[in-house]
Amino acid sequence: MTRLKNKVALVTGGARGIGAAIVERLCAEGAAVAFTYVTAKQPAEALVKAIGKAGGVALAIRADSGDAEAVKAAVAETVEVFGRLDILVNNAAIEIPGTIDSYPLEKFDRMIAVNIKGPFIAAQEAVRHMKEGGRIINIGSVSSDFMPVPEHAVYAMTKGAVASLTRGLARDLGPRGITVNNVQPGRVETDLLRAISSAPGGEKVREPVALKRLGKSEEVASLVAYLASAESSFVTGANMKVDGGASA
Ligand SMILES: NC(=O)c1ccc[n+]([C@@H]2O[C@H](COP(=O)([O-])OP(=O)(O)OC[C@H]3O[C@@H](n4cnc5c(N)ncnc54)[C@H](OP(=O)(O)O)[C@@H]3O)[C@@H](O)[C@H]2O)c1
């Protein structure tokens, strides 16, 4: 498939989990893809190598989404290296669980910085370079509408903000022909889900899935690839669940 030939993408948090599957899929569709990482240096380098071997082009950039200057620099480096930017995928996010009685405010601020402010700044910087046909794809979560277990209120709040930001940006950027959509995974087998499901009461996370299995990162990446392509040209402001029917 070459739906994304000659396109340039930036994926935040692309060295592992859902982000890595998105990087691989966008490259397989023909895009040159820059991606950020923070701790996963070796997986990032290995991914760049593997994509190069398969005939694709990828670039790993160390950038903490909670650091505004680093996010700005990552967008600038992508444009400097590849000459343009067509697709931004705001994938990086963290989850620091806890109940309201003891939730430290520094952690609350960090959740907001990484999960909300980082995606906003990335979008703000990216649209300086995007032309008509540009794509912003946020990775939210079904948690913004549906939270079956305790201790994830702050995470759910940040993903609710991502859904609202998506709708508002779709209005702002629609006149420029740039689409903005929110992909909302349900239970997808990654390190993040393993952390949630191993917390007290976490077994409930698996219970409601209509398809009776966890999702795969590749099953999220395929929707991202569609939204990144010209095939989704009349889709914007949408919040699209990939959750195996968990919230059906
Ligand atoms: N897995 C699920 O079931 C599920 C469900 C709903 C929504 N989601 C959403 O899907 C997205 C990916 O989740 P995942 O399950 O793949 O998570 P994950 O396995 O925990 O991976 C998180 C990714 O985000 C990166 N990251 C974390 N903090 C960062 C920061 N401050 N700056 C830049 N990158 C950072 C990590 O980079 P390093 O490894 O380099 O630190 C890693 O690549 C997130 O937005 C998450 O909220 C996941």
TrEMBL record:
Domain of life: Bacteria
Domain Ketoreductase: 7-186
Listed EC numbers: 1.1.1.-
SUPFAM superfamilies, per the entry: NAD(P)-binding Rossmann-fold domains
Coiled-coil ranges per UniProt: none
GO molecular function: oxidoreductase activity
Alphabetical UniProt keywords: Oxidoreductase
Family of the protein in this entry: Belongs to the short-chain dehydrogenases/reductases (SDR) family.
Protein name: 3-oxoacyl-ACP reductase family protein
Source organism phylogeny: Bacteria, Pseudomonadati, Pseudomonadota, Alphaproteobacteria, Rhodospirillales
